[in-house]
Amino acid sequence: MDIDGQVAVVTGGGSGLGRAAAEALAARGAKVAVVDRNAAAAEEVANAIAGLALAFDVADAIATETGLARVGAALGTPRILVNCAGIGVAKRVLGKEGPQPLADFEQVVRVNLIGSFNTLRLAAAEMAKLEPLAGGERGVVINTASVAAFEGQVGQAAYSASKGGIVAMTLPIARELAQFGIRVNVIAPGLFSTPLLRSLPEEVQASLAKSIPFPSRLGEPAEFAKLALHMVENSFLNGEVVRLDGALRLPPR
Predict the structure, then answer these.
(1) What is the dihedral sign for C-alpha 200, 205, 211, 213?
(2) Which residues pair with 56 in a beta bridge?
(3) For residue range 204-226, what is the model confidence (pLDDT) as tens digits?
(4) Residues with Cβ < 8 Å from 246, sequence gap 6 or more?
(5) Which Pfam family, any one, appears in the UniProt record (predicted)?
(6) Is the Cβ–Cβ distance between 93 and 26 less than 8 Å?
(7) Cα–Cα distance between 100 and 79 in angstroms, integer?
């Protein structure tokens, strides 16, 4: 799909990987709606790329439907959806204070997995109504998983479950939406230089970087964005999960 002139929605677009994706899409000529629970962050990015800022919870069905309707009214129906919204809670199943609170597990799955599915289902419903482009394509969805979906570490049960669910639903959804000319792919990033990791002490960041075979450094959000752009532009890439991790394989701890 040619990105120029298309409408794109990026969730979690106020920072990190989402911000990089939003900026890259805008640089290619897309009209971008930046979605983030942090309204100020969404506004900052949207202003920088002449986009539309929206603040809502991606796991809230009504709020998301309303938000996407605002995108349609202001920019047009999106053909591109990049889901980067997500959270992580590191807790052991059996900690010093007893079993992990169920609410913690539910919250991570709700935001990461249910939120991704919610925005996908609603955006795909609108994409399916569009006239097809050359080759029959109507839209593309890119979800964000993690290498933790494959090698979850101790304390990552909720996070790994949520990201593993994103991986597992990719192929069946891609097969179902093929009839509408809508593609679905996933990026599974490793250790990236996001605001969360940059908040750690320098020695911790250096140690994490050394664990990556090559290149032995943290990934840059711009590298995530480059892969997202390729997934949009390469119309034969469908139903795939692509690791972006420098050959990293996470140890148990």
Answers:
(1) positive
(2) none
(3) 788 888 999 999 999 999 999 99
(4) 190, 212, 213, 214, 215, 216, 217, 219
(5) adh_short
(6) no
(7) 40
Name the active-site residue from 105, 159, 180, 192: 159
Q: What are 50-77's pLDDT values in tens digits?
A: 999 999 999 999 999 999 999 999 999 9
Q: Residue with structure tokens 């790329």?
A: 49
* Confidence (pTM): 0.95
Q: In angstroms, how far apart are the furthest CA atoms of the chain?
A: 58
Q: Indicate whether 114 belongs to any domain.
A: yes
Question: How deeply is 49 buried, as exposed, middle or buried, from its count of CB atoms within 10 A (0-12, 13-18, 19+)?
Answer: buried
- Whether the CB-CB separation of 231 and 187 falls below 8 Å is answered with yes
H helices present in the chain, as ranges: 16-27, 39-49, 61-74, 102-109, 115-127, 157-177, 195-198, 202-210, 221-233
pLDDT above 90 for 200: no
Query: Rounded mean pLDDT of 98-115?
Result: 96
Q: Note whether residue 146 is domain-resident.
A: yes
Residue 87 scores a pLDDT above 80: yes
Tokens 């711009």 map to which residue? 222
At residue 232, the pLDDT reads: 98
**What is the overall mean pLDDT for the chain?**
95
The total of structural domains in the chain comes to: 1
Q: CATH number of the domain that 26 lies in?
A: 3.40.50.720
Q: Which domain holds residue 102?
A: 7-189+221-244
The dihedrals phi and psi of 37, each to the nearest 5 degrees, come to -70, -25
199 part of a folded domain? no
159 catalytic residue (yes or no): yes
